[in-house]
């Protein structure tokens, strides 16, 4: 059975680590802590952690999942993701991409399969590299830039002190949503996540 591949989008290096654009990778750090593992470098130009995610009904360990942080910049994420899909023989239906979303307010999360990229260059790169849009996306709201601030500039700034107060809860909820998809399926995960809102 195809393993799950969970990709957290962002830009590489400490300079970008706290940016809104890197919230996908922040979610993966929460998942890695739950899996009690650490990331290692993969030849596909990504940091990966391969293990079991979550717990199935009855207490058995959850399915195999590979967490991946591409080491490329956001707008060229497609090549490392496609290489990982090929290396781990992942069915696109078992690919989950976690990314920032300016069209959602902070603390809001949305799960969907397929659809457009909404101007998100990371998603566009992945869809082009895979030749399909039929993968799961977890959208993590970061809000819109204030006033006339450019959206690209806004997402490349760190979360404000006020935003960081709630950020930890949001990251845990996002990790829960990924875990739900892996252990219970997308429909049940959507029902739980979107009903709570």
**Helix-strand pattern, N to C?**
EHEEEHEEHEHHH
Count of extended strands: 7
Largest sheet: 7 strands, mixed
**Major beta sheet, strand line-up:** 2-3-4-1-5-7-6
Query: What is the level 1 CATH name?
Result: Alpha Beta
Please report which band the strand proportion falls in: under 5%, 5-15%, 15-25%, 25-35%, 35-45% or over 45%.
15-25%
Distance between the termini: 33 Å
DSSP helix fraction: 25-40%
Low-confidence stretches are none
What is the mean predicted local confidence, pLDDT? 93
Number of domains: 1
- In CATH terms, what is the fold-level topology? Rossmann fold
Q: Secondary-structure map with pairings?
A:
Elements: E1 4-8, H1 23-35, E2 40-42, E3 46-52, E4 64-70, H2 78-87, E5 95-101, E6 109-113, H3 121-130, E7 136-141, H4 151-155, H5 161-184, H6 186-196
Site (Stabilizes the basic form of H active site to accept a proton): 100
Family: Belongs to the PTH family.
Protein name: Peptidyl-tRNA hydrolase
Give a brief description.
The chain is an alpha/beta fold. It has 6 helices and 7 strands, in the order E-H-E-E-E-H-E-E-H-E-H-H-H. Strands 2-3-4-1-5-7-6 form a 7-stranded mixed beta sheet, with helices on both faces.
Describe this structure in words.
The protein is an alpha/beta fold. 37% of the residues lie in helices and 20% in strands. The protein has helices spanning 23-35, 78-87, 121-130, 151-155, 161-184, 186-196, and strands at 4-8, 40-42, 46-52, 64-70, 95-101, 109-113, 136-141. Strand 2 and strand 3 form a beta hairpin. The mean pLDDT is 93. Its EC number is 3.1.1.29.
């Amino acid at each position: 059975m195809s393993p799950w591949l969970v990709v957290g989008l962002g830009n590489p290096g400490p300079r970008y680590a706290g940016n809104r654009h890197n919230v996908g990778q922040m979610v993966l750090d929460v998942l890695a802590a739950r899996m009690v593992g650490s990331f290692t470098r993969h030849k596909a130009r990504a940091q990966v952690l391969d293990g079991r995610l979550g717990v199935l009904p009855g207490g058995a360990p959850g399915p195999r999942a590979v967490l991946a942080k591409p080491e490329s910049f956001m707008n060229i994420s497609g090549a490392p993701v496609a290489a990982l899909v090929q290396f781990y023989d992942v069915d696109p239906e078992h690919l989950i991409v976690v990314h920032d979303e300016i069209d959602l307010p902070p603390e809001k999360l949305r799960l969907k399969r397929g659809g457009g990229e909404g101007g998100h260059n990371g998603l566009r790169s992945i869809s082009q590299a895979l030749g399909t849009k039929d993968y799961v996306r977890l959208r993590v709201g970061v809000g819109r830039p204030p006033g006339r601030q450019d959206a690209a500039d806004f997402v490349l700034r760190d979360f404000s002190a006020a935003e960081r107060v709630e950020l930890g809860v949001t990251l845990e909820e996002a990790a829960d949503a990924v875990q739900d998809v892996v252990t219970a399926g997308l429909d049940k995960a959507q029902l739980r996540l979107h009903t709570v809102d």
